[in-house]
Structure formats: C-alpha cells, structure tokens
Specification:
By secondary structure, the protein is an alpha/beta fold. The protein contains 5 helices and 11 strands; from the N terminus they run E-H-E-E-H-E-E-E-H-E-E-E-E-E-H-H. It has a single domain, classed as BirA Bifunctional Protein, domain 2.
C-alpha cells in the first residue's frame, strides 16, 4: 500500500473533517490507498462520539464557547473527548478488510506505545479501558469510524496541551479519570512536531 502521510499543522475541526470525507471518497473509488493526517485542532473542540451521553459535558455549551471550545457531534465510536492545541491528533483514512479491523487498530496502538517508549514512557491498553494509559492516568484517546470499509478518525495523544478542557467533561465517559501528557510526565516541553515525526516513522501498513 502507498499510504500518504499529510502533516497539516493547526486546523479547525470542520476543515479536518472535510479532508477526511474527501479522502474517504477517493479511497472508496480506488483513487487512493489512504492518508494519515497529523494535526492539532485550533480552536479547541469537544467532540461527542456516536455513543456519547450529553450529560458527560459538565458545563453549558454557551459557556464552553466563551472559554474557546467548539462542540461537535462526530461519527467515531466512543463518548466525549477534548482536542486542544498541543495535542497530536492523527486521523487514519484507509481501506479496511473486515476481518482485519482488530489488527488494524492494534497496529496503530503499538506504534503509539513504541513512540512513547522513545521518551521513556511505558503505556498500556486493553479492551476494558479505551485509550492508552500511563499507570492510572490517560495519555491518549482512541476513537474510529470503521463503517463502509474505510476508516476515519483515530487517536488524540496529549503532548503539551494544557488538559484544561478535560475538567469540563467526563473523559470518554470514565468518571474520575486522571489525564496526563508527555510534557507533564517528563516535566519539560515536548513539541507536537517531534512526536509526529517519531510516530510517522513507527507506522507501517
């Protein structure tokens, strides 16, 4: 497969969604083998997956907007999460073989774990707790739309974001969850660009 890697920098949620949908059509028509988009969302956005419970957003939407957070309902699985500048968001728009879906997701998770390992951070994942965890703290959220034999959405890895938005939601519907980031774990600033470069070298399809 000749999968493209596209590094977008900071983009709005709506612009990134349009790019995903356009690429999905190219993949479905056989014009593309797929694209992995690396980006940060600006302005910050709170997204609600297909299984989201509205009450997991803890403050009124008007107040969220005044704090600089947009709100969007999206096609991925899962509940509610936050995307902020300083967080690496990676969207995978790729063809899928129905019997290989678990392997597809596990391949991505292993690449993220290997990337974190380059910084001396051990992350784990299992089916009972969505995302990637550093001990009891969540560092990476995961949510895919795997319908129509073409994937969309992907992962959100906390790199140097403030994590402030997570205090306004119940992250992924998990009450009492602690959030962390690469920069917080290492007590130094880590750039999204650095992490993007390492992760892109770990991904293979």
């Amino acid at each position: 497969m000749n999968v493209n890697f596209n590094f977008l920098g900071k983009v709005t949620y709506d612009a990134a969604e349009r790019l995903q949908l356009e690429e999905k059509e190219r993949v479905k028509s056989g014009q593309s083998d797929g694209t992995v988009f690396f980006l940060e969302h600006q302005p910050a956005v709170i997204t609600l997956g297909k299984n989201a419970i509205a009450s997991n957003i803890l403050i009124p939407e008007k107040l969220l907007k005044s704090k600089g957070y947009d709100v969007r309902k999206v096609s991925r699985g899962g509940d509610v999460t936050v995307h902020e500048p300083g967080q690496l968001v990676v969207y995978f728009v790729m063809p899928l073989k129905s019997k290989a879906v678990r392997g597809f997701v596990n391949n991505i998770m292993n690449a993220v774990c290997s990337t974190l390992g380059e910084f001396g951070i051990k992350a784990t994942f299992d089916d009972k707790k969505p995302g990637l965890w550093v001990e009891d703290k969540k560092i990476c959220s995961i949510g895919f739309d795997l319908t129509g034999r073409v994937s969309m959405h992907g992962i959100a890895l906390n790199v140097s974001n403030t994590l402030e938005g997570f205090a306004m939601i119940v992250p992924c519907g998990l009450s009492g969850v602690k959030m962390t980031s690469l920069s917080k774990e290492l007590s130094r600033n880590v750039s999204v660009e650095e992490v993007s470069n390492i992760l892109s070298s770990k991904l293979s399809f």
